[in-house]
Amino acid sequence: MDNNSQGAGGAKGGLGGLFGGGAPEYSNTELAGVPLTGMSPLSPYLNVDPRYLIQDTDEFILPTGANKTRGRFELAFFTIGGSCMTGAALGAVNGLRMGLKETQDMAWSKPRNVQIINMVTRQGASWANSLGSVALLYSVFGVAIEKARGAEDDVNTVAAGTLTGMLFKSGSGLKGVARGGLAGLALSGAYALYNNWDHITGSSSSSSRLY
User: Nearest to residue 161, comparing CAs of 143, 141, 177?
Assistant: First the structure.
């Protein structure tokens, strides 16, 4: 029995050496010492060094001088598009509410359905136009202030929000401009505070430990 197995192994080794396709044989003891973390020099199952499969660095090579995060100009497209879609969705919900309220005395019929659909589309387009205009003004002001100052920080966010509110309400007179500016200042300030909340709480906790 042993002679037959040894003979078969020798035959396979000879054929493998003859045609150049013989795979090395590993014993159970050798295979038991191979870790599964990919840190072994060579895997007995794959003719690939597992160390090349470990990604410790970034997978993308950025151009010289490029930032790892997207700037305001790149985010402007997402901001404007997202605001339009959000406004359309909120306007559609508001139009449905208004349509159902205005036609509550009517029976379910084709005229009532048409009136509700008209209200939904009208309100959706109006809200999408309003939020899209606000997002467009905010993005334009943000990019312009960033280029003018040569820096990207929360000052640009607050300034862009304040100017957006003032310009959006510029048709309502001085009081409207003041109210729009205050609203933009409050919203942009809250957004900046939200983005820096972890930094603020971390710095306050570290300073309390010092004292």
Answer: 141
Cα–Cα distance, 170 to 176 (Å, whole number): 6
**Under a CB-based contact definition with an 8 Å cutoff, are residues 149 and 127 in contact?**
no
Residue 76: per-residue pLDDT? 85
Cα–Cα–Cα angle for 161, 164, 170, rounded to 5 degrees: 145
Report pLDDT for 59. Answer: 59
Please, what is the average pLDDT of the chain? 76
- Give phi and psi for 19, each to the nearest 5: -95, -5
Rounded CA separation 64/126 (Å): 43
The CA distance from 142 to 157, in Å, is 7
Residue 189, both tokens: 């300030």
d(Cα 87, Cα 128) in Å, to the nearest integer?
A: 4
Task: Tokens for 120, please give them.
Answer: 């939904």
Quote the pTM value. Answer: 0.60
Asked if 146 and 72 touch (Cβ cutoff 8 Å), the reply is yes
- % of the chain residues with pLDDT over 90: 35
Greatest CA separation for the chain: 104
> pLDDT tier at 196 (50, 70, 90 boundaries)?
confident
Tell me the CA distances in angstroms from 172 to 130, 166, 179, 180, one per residue in order: 15, 10, 10, 9
